[in-house]
Amino acid sequence: MAIPPDIDQEEIDAVVKVLKSKKLTALSGRQIKKFEKQFAKYCGTKYAIAVNSGTAAIHVALAALEVGPGDEVIVPPYTFVASATPVLHNNAIPIFADIDKKTYCLDPEDVKKRISDKTVGIIPVHLFGHPAEMDSILEIAEKHNLFVLEDSCQAHGAEYKGKKVGSLGNAGCFSFFESKNMMTGEGGIITTNDDELLEQARLIRWHGEPAQYRYKRLGYNYRMTEIQAALGLVQLKKLDKFNEIRIKNADYLNEKLEPIEGIQIPYVAPEVKHVFHVYAPLLKADKIGISNDEFMKRLQEIIPFIRPIYPDPLYTESIFVEKNAYKYKCPFSCPYYDKELDYSKISLPVVEEICERIIGLPTMPGITGKLLDEVIKNIRKIIKEIKK
Ligand SMILES: Cc1ncc(COP(=O)(O)O)c(C=O)c1O
Fold first, then answer.
1. Which atom of ligand 1 is nearest to the CA of 179?
2. CATH 3.40.640.10 segments of the chain
3. Residues in contact with 314: Cβ distance below 8 Å, sequence separation at least 6, in sequence order
4. Which residue intervals of 258-367 are DSSP H helices?
5. What's the 262 CA to ligand 1 centre distance in angstroms?
6. How many Cα atoms occupy the beta-carbon half-sphere of 302 within 13 Å?
7. Along the 388 residues of the chain, how does pLDDT read in single tens digits?
8. Measured in angstroms, how far is the CA atom of residue 375 from the centroid of ligand 1?
9. CA of 219 to the centre of ligand 1 (A)
10. Is the shortest distance between the CB of 228 and ligand 1 below 6 Å?
11. Engineering a disulfide at 176: which of 124, 184, 247, 370 sits with its beta carbon 3.0 to 4.6 angstroms away?
């Protein structure tokens, strides 16, 4: 059981209107263009390019930035896999840098250590809705001539020093999967101020086809539908309200969980607006005497909609350890990549500690006060039982 997205008559009417118009794609309709314009305006960027998932957004943005064989891109190991797999989709190599202990986002100091002569870019992830430390990341990028692609898939409306995420780097990528801060069922979008990136991204999402039956470069069908865009237009209007509810839920959880010995409430950097896609406190294992896995299992037995959060650093997954991308171990084994990379030898201390201690709690607008109280009550109960 999952908490459903917040949908009311306005979304239903918008979708029905598109269906009745019989204009379902970008070929005939106007919703996608309108959604792109409004999303760009919301983020404070010149452009937005709608696609059909957050993964497609990152794939397209990297391709538009001409990432390819032999290139390394620095990514965090604590995130959803699709922050890293689009690097492989472009035949390039994800290089993992450690995360910050407080924000769970990329640690700029560790990013510096991962830069090589093959590095072409950095993908900071604004994890759980908390923006990454962008000033330092942008400074490193400028010094080494790297692009910065903000994975904002969990952070619609989040702000860093008063600017919306997705407007700080060369491009921002968002997901509109149904659990996100705003959603279109499935869907994604790229934000950018760069005219060349706009042109390439538009081509890549549409078969590389600048004019009908003319094919300029390798592309895909990553187009959004008019139904998704109509849903997105309604959800975008409600995004600030949705985020306010998430922040209020996080405040409530803070108030009730902070006094519990053994729980460390999530950090919010003073320069950011955190939009709490996930509320993620830490367990102080020494005070509780139970692993976060065990803790979450017990909580889930009582409250089934509670979901465990990323259990291990991405570099421990078979896709990386066994190099299960393309045939012949490409792109890791590639004439353009002359390094021997062994992910099984990677050990990053902060992410490994966080994976053992973090728990993820829901904040979505559909969650009622009663359900939050149920979560809090059972967290207290589990801790009390263990301590007996
Ligand atoms: C951080 C992050 N990156 C990328 C993605 C991929 O987005 P999608 O599921 O829309 O392909 C997600 C979505 O789950 C995500 O949370």
1. 14
2. 9-236
3. 75, 77, 78, 79, 81, 84, 96, 320
4. 285-288, 292-302, 318-321, 349-357
5. 31
6. 15
7. 578 999 999 999 999 999 999 999 999 999 999 999 999 999 999 999 999 999 999 999 999 999 999 999 999 999 999 999 999 999 999 999 999 999 999 999 999 999 999 999 999 999 999 999 999 999 999 999 999 999 999 999 999 999 999 999 999 999 999 999 999 999 999 999 999 999 999 999 999 999 999 999 999 999 999 999 999 999 999 999 999 999 999 999 999 999 998 899 999 999 999 999 999 999 987 777 888 999 999 999 998 888 889 999 999 999 999 999 999 999 999 999 999 999 999 999 999 999 999 999 999 999 988 999 999 999 999 988 887 7
8. 26
9. 20
10. no
11. 184
**CA–CA distances in Å: residue 156 to residues 42, 45, 74, 116, 271:** 10, 13, 22, 32, 17
For domain 239-309+352-387, which CATH number applies: 3.90.1150.10, 3.30.70.360, 3.40.50.12780, 3.40.50.150? 3.90.1150.10
Q: Is the CB of 105 under 6 A from ligand 1?
A: no
Pick one of 3.40.50.300, 2.40.10.10, 3.40.640.10, 3.40.50.360 as the CATH number of 9-236. 3.40.640.10
Of the residues 79, 153, 307, 309, which should be mutated to test ligand 1's pocket, given the most ligand atoms within 8 Å of the CB?
Answer: 153
Closest ligand 1 atom, CA of 277?
A: 16
The CB of 314 under 6 Å from ligand 1? The reply is: no
Q: Is 125 in the pocket of ligand 1 (CB under 6 A)?
A: yes
Tell whether ligand 1 has an atom less than 6 A from the beta carbon of residue 175.
yes
How many other C-beta atoms lie within 10 A of the C-beta of residue 338? 9
Q: Would the CB of 80 count as within 6 Å of ligand 1? A: yes
Residue reference for tokens 């803070």: 254
Residue nearest to atom 14 of ligand 1 (CA): 80
What CA–CA distance (Å, rounded) separates 269 from 264? Answer: 15
Beta strand 72-75 with 119-122: parallel, antiparallel or unpaired? parallel
Q: How far is the CA of 53 from the centre of ligand 1 (A)?
A: 8
